[in-house]
Amino acid sequence: MKAALVDELGRPPRYGDAAEPVATGDLVVAEVQAAAVKNIERGLVSGSHYGSGALQVPGLIGLDAVVALPDGRRAYTGATPPGGAMAERMLVNPALAVDIPREVDDASAAALPNAAISAWFALQYAGQIRPGQSVLVLGGTGVTGSLAAQLAKRTFGADHVVVAGRNAARLERLAELGVDATITLGTDGGAQGQFETEIRRLHAERPFDLVLDYLWGRPAEQTLGALANNDLAAEFHRTRYVQVGAMAAATIELPAGVLRSAGIELLGQAAAAYPARRSAGS
Ligand SMILES: NC(=O)c1ccc[n+]([C@@H]2O[C@H](COP(=O)([O-])OP(=O)(O)OC[C@H]3O[C@@H](n4cnc5c(N)ncnc54)[C@H](OP(=O)(O)O)[C@@H]3O)[C@@H](O)[C@H]2O)c1
């Protein structure tokens, strides 16, 4: 069968021939209908993702897909480790595949779950969002961040949602969809000079309870700097700062005083933070 083949980390996958998967145990062979290229696969293959070391190389890539199962079901499913959804066929456990409503096309059904589930879980589990809270989404013009901003407002009952991003048209659309304020980042991959001032102003007006950060790098440094203060007597406001993505840069500089002068709780969003899957009936 044809598949996306990873020969070595740091090089794009190539279209080539791979061995046919063989059904075994609970796993059946399914026909792949659509598999989305997401940032996580880009990161894994480029070698920049923390999970790159676990990738089987040479090997296949692709973490999830829409498939046609042998019994005729059209379903969304994750690929069995180490992955290989970007191929004509893949192994699937039918019990772990989710039926897709007829009105949703294959491409949408393949592209949305990674972003939507991550957005939901970042808010509910890492973020522990509560109704009435104030939320900042850094990089909220991307697929995942814009879903997170809308979920925060509409589903989790956040009172005040602010989105920062580079893309002015996307910011405008998010404002139409109900986010309360938007901040434009510089187009050079960094943040404009006034960005930190604007975050500081908004935080003083209505302290952020939760930050979801899809960018890291300079925008994160400036945001963390804006949450800090220089008043020894200042009262702390607890802000959960959830690191989700690193589109701007993989590292930041974090002065010690930022953490000591503010109620920042810094944590990351990862699959390991999700609650264990419930057994049937529980
Ligand atoms: N941990 C998890 O569970 C999880 C799950 C999903 C995604 N993620 C991560 O979250 C990040 C965003 O994912 P996504 O699905 O939203 O991606 P996406 O749809 O490709 O959006 C990427 C966003 O990042 C912005 N961006 C890119 N480079 C930037 C830079 N140098 N400075 C400022 N903004 C920049 C883009 O702005 P422009 O439109 O202006 O280019 C866009 O808004 C990725 O790092 C992804 O791996 C993590």
Give a description of the structure.
This protein is an alpha/beta fold and 282 residues long. It folds into 2 domains: 2-104, Medium-chain alcohol dehydrogenases, catalytic domain (Quinone Oxidoreductase, Chain A, domain 1), CATH 3.90.180.10; 114-273, Rossmann fold, CATH 3.40.50.720. 28% of the residues lie in helices and 23% in strands. The protein has 7 helices and 14 strands. A 6-stranded parallel beta sheet has the order 11-10-9-12-13-14, with helices on both faces. Strand 12, helix 6 (217-227) and strand 13 form a beta-alpha-beta unit. The longest helix has 21 residues, at 106-126. The protein is elongated, with a radius of gyration of 21 Å. Bound molecules: NADP nicotinamide-adenine-dinucleotide phosphate. Residues 39-40, 43, 114-115, 118, 139, 141-145, 165-167, 185, 189, 214-215, 244-248, 269-270 line the site of NADP nicotinamide-adenine-dinucleotide phosphate. The site of NADP nicotinamide-adenine-dinucleotide phosphate has 26 residues, from helix 1, helix 2 and helix 3.
Condensed summary:
By secondary structure, the protein is an alpha/beta fold. The protein has helices at 39-46, 106-126, 143-154, 168-176, 193-205, 217-227, 256-260; strands at residues 2-6, 14-17, 28-34, 59-60, 64-68, 74-78, 89-92, 98-99, 134-138, 160-165, 181-184, 210-213, 238-243, 263-268. The longest helix is centred in the middle third of the chain and has 21 residues, at 106-126.
Q: What name does CATH use for the topology of the largest domain? A: Rossmann fold
Bound molecules: NADP nicotinamide-adenine-dinucleotide phosphate
* Helix/strand order, N-terminal first: EEEHEEEEEHEHEHEHEHEHE
User: Strand-residue fraction?
Assistant: 15-25%
State the separation between the terminal residues, measured CA to CA.
Answer: 40 Å
CATH architecture heading of the largest domain? 3-Layer(aba) Sandwich
User: Which class do the helix and strand fractions yield?
Assistant: alpha/beta
Output mean pLDDT: 93
What is the CATH superfamily of the largest domain? NAD(P)-binding Rossmann-like Domain
**Lateral strand order in the biggest sheet:** 11-10-9-12-13-14
The count of DSSP E runs of length 2 or more, i.e. the number of strands, is: 14
What portion of residues is helical? 25-40%
Gyration radius, in Å: 21 Å
Largest sheet: 6 strands, parallel
Report the principal-axis shape.
elongated
Number of domains: 2
| Low-confidence segments | none
